[in-house]
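seq/struct pair 1
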Amino acid sequence: MFYRIFRAFLILCLRIMYRRIEAPGLARVPPHGGVLLVANHGNALMDPLLLLVLLSRPITFLAKHTLFPMPLVGFFLKRIGGLPVYRRHEAPGESAKNEETLDRCGSTLSAGGIVCLFPEGISHNEPKLQTLRTGAARIYCRAMRRVSAGLTLLPAGINYESKRAFRSRVLVVFGRPIAAEDVTSLEAARPGEGVAELTRRIEEALRELVPGLDTWGELAFLRDVRALFLGRREESLTEEAVSLRRFIQAYRYYREKDPDTVAAIRERWEMYRRQLRRFSLRDESVDLSEAPVRAARFVLLSAVVILGVMPLAIAGWVTHYPAYRLCGEVERRANRAADQSATFKLIGGILLFPLTYAILAALLAWRGGWKSALVGLALLPLCGWAALRVSEERQRLREGVKALALAFTSRKAVEEIRRQRRGILDSVAQLLRDHPPEAAALR
């Protein structure tokens, strides 16, 4: 019962925090039977919470033992059946306790449950997979000794549009099950080799589901070049990921083939981004400026929505902004790691927004009685939604207004930006002509 209530609460929290959560391949999670779920780990507590929200089946998570004594995090970890992992550098002399954790994982899997772990062993802020530990492979091999129907070993790649940004998007890709049936016999015949081979397969499967680049700057560069090359349009992260992967593969190929030209294209892109920042523009505004009628329609629709919900939005801003602002301030002052930003904000929101509602309900009850408090509590979420909607529409309105201003008053600036765009695209096209891509290199 607690698990279901906690999951329902998290669904609400994450649907507010993220504008969209996409999960292609979710149907690959079998409805029954033991499942060992392995995922990359780039955003602290947000990674397991997203998986918990997406999967309707209960999940047993492995987490470092230092989280369990923490007042809030530890409380929920224990209630949902979390299992501690003792790492040598954090718990000298206690790593033997991991044997008990491995046995409990085996029991859960043999009973048809789901166990999830992050085989990198750490949360990090890199756009590529870190070196994997052998824990996942050891759990699988140990569990296979106890089950007769087999286990599903399933990889998941968790990709954030922006880790720090409120109302951004998330893409969680569930890959194909990893073939592992033959590994147990190899491990039985030659202890250690089966675990090493399965760890290699897990790493290979996860690499297919994450960008695998050295820096976030490279990812931003490739996303922009892809959008310019294919034509910027509204699309889901799932749709973007299909072609983005080919651009990443091409980037790796050409970085080896002709590094000077790739560096020159990136320098052109950086100049283009500086030009956009100079005029406080986004690509969307430049695109809209080429279609003034569409931009005008964009402005009109956004204005209608804003005016329609503005009364509720004003109440929403007044009541929700202090807690929202305080969450950001606490995160800014307390957080020291980029991969923990969203975790701080979420925990802050879970604590501060219910407190805000309680204070407002108490004030309404004091001034107008319990009926006023009930009406106020019913209206507060609606006001919060209106405030979010107006904030998002306000961004669209700004883009439309800037597009109209560019179309009619800043033609020289638009021409310069378009010239820089053409320069980037011409450079990419010339690179393709000079070095036609080899099909084998871009598979």
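seq/struct pair 2
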Amino acid sequence: MPYKRLSDLPDNVRNHLPTHGQEIYLAAYNNAWDEYKDPEDRYGDDDRETVAHKVAWAAVKNKYEKRGDEWVEKED
């Protein structure tokens, strides 16, 4: 199910990502939720929610990287 607010995101997202990272996650998740609603549009056997989470984390990792226990913005 899509997320409406940052406060609706899973704890592992809210408690670890900076606000901007959470915004990226929310937007990517919701977009993937819509884009991959039909099973034939997904690769493998993953369900819609799993695919949306994978897409969201990939979007975050384009802009952020984990250093130790902290997510920090990548340097250009």
